[in-house]
């Protein structure tokens, strides 16, 4: 049995934030472990949808949305690191709206 699972997360990084914030988010994208770049405007880490392990992000009305295929422990570590590093750079606490982050 594989320990690879589907992972999802929405963050309180909204599409309408100013370009200065999005420029910082892109800097974090590129500094995160597994960064491989963009394909058709979508950022990817570790691989793409046809690979066993990957992370991708998209900007949705619900916030910055991540979808991944990876182990629970690797995902937890990666997304918590993303939240921490982004919080440091953008000037507000980054987290999931479902957990009260707005």
Automatic annotation (TrEMBL):
It comes from the Bacteria. This is Uncharacterized protein.
